Amino acid sequence: MNEFWYKLLFYDSIDFMFIINENGDFKEVNNITCTELGFNREEFKNLNITDIAPGFLQEIKSIFFSNKHTKPYLKFETNLHTCPGALIPVEVLVRNISKDNLEPLILITCRNITERKNYEARFEEALLKSQKAEKAKSEFLANMSHEIRTPLNAVLGYADLLKYVNDEEKKKEFLEGIDISAKTLLNLINDILEYSKLEAGKLTLNYKVVNLRDLFNEFLIIFKKYKFEKGIEFSVILDNNLPDYCNIDDTRLKQILLNLIGNAFKFTHEGSIKLVVICHYVSKKDFDLTIEIIDTGIGIQQDKQEEIFFSFNRQNANSKNNYEGTGLGLAITKNICQLFGGTIHVISSPNKGSTFSVFLPNIKEVKEPSNILVGNNILTYDFNQKAVLIVEDIDSNRFVIREFLKNYNLNLLDANNGKEALEIFSKHGSIDLILMDLQMPIMDGYTAIEEIRKLEIGKQVPIIALTAVYKEEDKSETLKKIQAYLQKPIKKNELLQEITKYLTESSPETVSIPKDYLELFRIVFSSKFHLVKAHLLNNEIEDFATELIEFANEHKLHELQKFSHRLYQSATNFKIEKMQSDFLSLNKYFV
After folding, report:
1. Residue 471 predicted with pLDDT over 70
2. Percent of the chain scored above 90 by pLDDT?
3. Parallel/antiparallel/unpaired status of strands 343-349 and 353-365
């Protein structure tokens, strides 16, 4: 019985087990030792322990076959050599099983610890990366102190000088200095805020119809100043197949390009910079976009080309040259590319230049929209004394908005907080649009919006929220109560385009469903449309609009997203005539 169990435990063990004599010759081996090391039992008879574990025998003999040995076993780690020449890391347990007056024998048990060693290696690598990231973060914080103070000191210095200067040319020069420094400071802060969104997983894409050719060519104007200052040739080369219009988040695409072209100008001191755009159609309306920024700058060392996409990493950190920046730009750029479902990589040689390649897949071509606002038309628009209530607690912000709107025949009213806005709105009785800051003392914008919507006269008034910190969860919570968001700092053209949507008479909203989705659209909504059409009730149209929003979001149909949101707002704000006319405009798809 004992012999049976011994053989079962020895031969069928999941660990390597073998018995050797004091010369290292194999006396017995178990099954897994033969299988894993690649030798059969006959071959083991002609092998020595030194063939699979060099140096192993000498250590064992010096301990087990000497008077110094006091322990019944020995435990350590080593590597076993296999027949194919591979190494297996093992944990070894050695026991002396010699009996008096018999041949000295040793039982060796080896446990395969490959998985543990791999885990330890990964852990060590992760630990080194973590330590490196912590060091980079510390350097980043120290660097930010300098980067933020530099433009801030310039702004304060120029502003102080303006108090004592009468010469108009000098004033213009100082104001230009303030403008440049303020924009530098804003870019630094934007990078930090964008990074915080990435860390929290809050960065999202907002698709809309964009003129691609105009967007890319715009960079010739943006970087015109740098081109002349540095004497560097800058060109934009567009694929002939590139469509005029597509559905994309233009803000995030511009952010990618600004980071990459800005870096190219920063690190290129002579030669040229090219923006090359290649379009490859994967179907009739879908295409992949490859964007290359090619420069003849200082280049990047091979071992640094992966690290530059890490957060807080600055290529020039140990350079004698002092280049400005947060070290977040390329990390943000990489994350935005991934949001698009795309990639970014770099090919570079020191002192020869770099090529950054961005790949963005499955972009949808669209027809030229009929409702694009032309800047010149906005600039000459007359709003016929429509009343706009500006709710903002900071005087300078309120002043800027007033300056933006003062030449468009608007009746502008001011409020310092939500409570004041509520009082003015209730007394005035005919406010046509509200620009509402969300974060204010006494009563914030969120509460003010809730209170205004409770009033009968407040159910239909358009409200545009103004916020310095844009949060996607804010948008989802207040979507039913406001018409739009504008993120600070407010840009004049964006503000004018937004208020034009709500202060001009409009015909019923219409929407174009792409042919690729038309059949699916009819299958999903045909029966529901005819049921709602029979009564045209508010709550039914509201539910229908909610399902439209989900469908549009799922399939990234920007035009349908916009239409369905407006239909939803018309229903919730009891704009009966507009709600019904917009809803019935869908009839053409279900006849």
Report:
1. no
2. 22
3. antiparallel
Tokens of 451: 């209170």
Of 498, 587, 578, 589, which Cα lies nearest the Cα of 538? 578
Using pLDDT thresholds of 50, 70 and 90, give the confidence band for residue 463.
very high
Cβ count near 130 (within 10 Å): 10
CB neighbour class for 270 (10 Å; exposed up to 12, middle 13-18, buried from 19): exposed
pLDDT digits (tens, 9 = 90+) for 31-89: 999 999 999 988 998 999 888 988 777 767 666 655 555 566 788 888 898 888 889 99
The residue whose two tokens read 């110094």 is 68
Is the model more confident about 435 or about 228? 435
**Residues with Cβ within 8 Å of residue 37, at least 6 apart in sequence:** 16, 52, 80, 81, 82, 83, 88
Where is pLDDT greater, at 355 or 2?
Answer: 355
CB-CB contact of 503 with 432 (8 Å): yes
Q: Beta strands of 207-317 (E only): which ranges?
A: 208-211, 233-238, 245-248, 272-281, 286-295
Counting every residue written for the chain, the total comes to 591
d(CA 302, CA 96): 54
The alpha carbons of the chain give a radius of gyration, in whole angstroms, of: 36
Tokens of 484: 């739009």
Q: Which tokens hold the place of 422?
A: 């509520």
As a whole number of angstroms, the distance between CA 555 and CA 111 comes to 53
Q: How many angstroms separate the CA atoms of 543 and 549, rounded?
A: 10
| Nearest CA-CA partner of 418 in 449, 387, 460, 459 | 449
* DSSP structure class, residue 372: P
Question: Helix, strand, or coil here: 102?
Answer: coil
Average pLDDT over residues 422-442: 88
For the cut 60, the answer to whether the pLDDT of residue 318 exceeds it is no
**26-29 and 16-21 as β-strands: parallel, antiparallel, unpaired?**
antiparallel
How far apart CA 382 and CA 209 sit, in angstroms, is: 26
| pLDDT bucket at 466, cuts 50 / 70 / 90 | confident
Dihedral sign for Cα atoms in the order 158, 164, 166, 170: negative
Please name the residues in contact with 81: beta carbons below 8 A apart, sequence gap of 6 or more: 37, 51, 52, 53, 54, 87
5 confidence band (pLDDT: 50, 70, 90):
confident
On average, the pLDDT of the chain sits at 80
**What are the backbone dihedrals phi and psi of residue 175, each rounded to the nearest 5 degrees, phi first?**
-65, -40
CA distance 548 to 227: 47
Whether the CB-CB separation of 548 and 567 falls below 8 Å is answered with: yes
